[in-house]
Amino acid sequence: MHLEIVTPDEKVFEGETKLVQLPGVKGSFEILNNHSPIISTLKKGKIKITDNENSTQYFEITGGVVEMQNNKIIVLAETK
To answer: What is the pLDDT of residues 28-54, one digit of tens each?
Structure first.
């Protein structure tokens, strides 16, 4: 699935992933391939990304919104 993480200043990540873990306002959750459509607010925490080669990356955010639809995830995030 395709992921974009965008902040007010720049696009900090764009690429193919197999797992995205997000700090939701009501608790952490994961999105996998073929997840049903979702829109959720995010709180301060780390976004964990696992790509198709099993490499893991983390991005610190202070809040934001995520939308997942048709295997495309867009995160509009606030950073420090």
So the answer is: 999 999 999 999 999 999 999 999 999
